[in-house]
Amino acid sequence: MAKSVGVRGMVSMVVGWSVVLGVGARVAAAPAGTPEQPKFVVHFDPGLMQLPESMTSDRDGNLYASNFSGAIQKIDAQAGTFATIATVPLPGGAVLTGIKVGPDGLIYVTSASFAPDPDGAFLWRVSPTTGAAEKFASLDNNGFPNDLVFQDDGTIIVTDPFLAQLWKIDTAGNASVFLASPLFAGDPTTPAFSGLPFGVDGIAWADHNKRTLIVSTLDFGRVMTIPMDVAGTPPIEIFVEDPALKGIDGIAVDSRGTIWCAVNTQDRIATVDQRGCISVIAQGSPLDGPSSFAFGTGNGDKKTLYIANFAIGSFLAGLPAHPGILSIPAPVPGLPLR
Fold it and tell me: Within a domain: residue 129?
């Protein structure tokens, strides 16, 4: 997202392509063992601003999506249905962004706006049973709070692609800057979306023990690692950077350590293995601005990857938009989101 109405612009469709390899990257076609293409689980209505920017799952197998409209949907993947369980009282011009279920069982969801006034930069806490929503933390209104993860002590780390930093929010809702870096900034010369540069976006834990964070920078197609078990300010290392990942939005990590990348502006799902090799898993229709992932957590569902079809680029360009939740089989389960 960028602070411009045309931020997503026209979706860049890349069907027959070649790439210039980036920082140590290799690009391969879809690997054997993933023959199926994504298929729709539920369709949303773009006319109602049901544009799912982010999605998540909980320990009980439930799936949730945060919509630009301020609504939070609970998805029943088996039945192919969804229900709105909460509507966050956003100020005018604000939208919902990242969503996760916390260790307390409550839903935490970020919001942001396309201009500093009115202020929309918050972290909200929502009950999945009653729908009650409360403002949990206030952040810098010049930023754009996006994705989030939890540390074991309940502290939340939030990406901010406009301020090129990571926020840390304690269990009382107090926010501070955890880490800032030029590596987190967007590209002012050739941004992935039309509009302002868009920097650090997706975030996920690389391992069960939460020793390493993985973050992505959208404009540069960059995936970085941050060791969390070091004294002092943790170093930031570029793991891979490649044009095949330009426009990378949300990320997820599976139990093999493979990073799944939602390459929003290229309608692409790609993976990065532990050697830094990029594989294109799926591309083109029915993908429409994929923005986020959640691995299934229910019985018999742990090798399913769910995909949020954001469709914001098509929507803003006046093209047929296909927002919804899709699924694709995965070789192995995902790591826990908390």
Answer: yes
Write the Ramachandran bin of 201: left for phi over 0, alpha for psi from -120 to 50, otherwise beta. Answer: alpha
Q: Which residues are 216's β-sheet partners?
A: 223
Amino acid at 280: V
The domain that contains 290 carries what CATH number? 2.120.10.30
Number of domains in the chain: 1
The verdict on residue 300 lying in a domain is yes
What are φ and ψ of residue 277, in 5° steps? -85, 130
Whole domain around residue 176: which residue ranges? 26-329
Strand partners, 227: 212
Give the pairing of strands 165-169 and 148-150.
unpaired
Reported as a single tens digit per residue, the pLDDT across 249-259 is 999 999 999 99
Specify if 211 maps to a domain.
yes
pLDDT in tens, 104-125: 999 999 999 988 888 999 999 9
Which DSSP state fits 266? G
| Burial (0-12, 13-18, 19+ Cβ within 10 Å), 300 | exposed
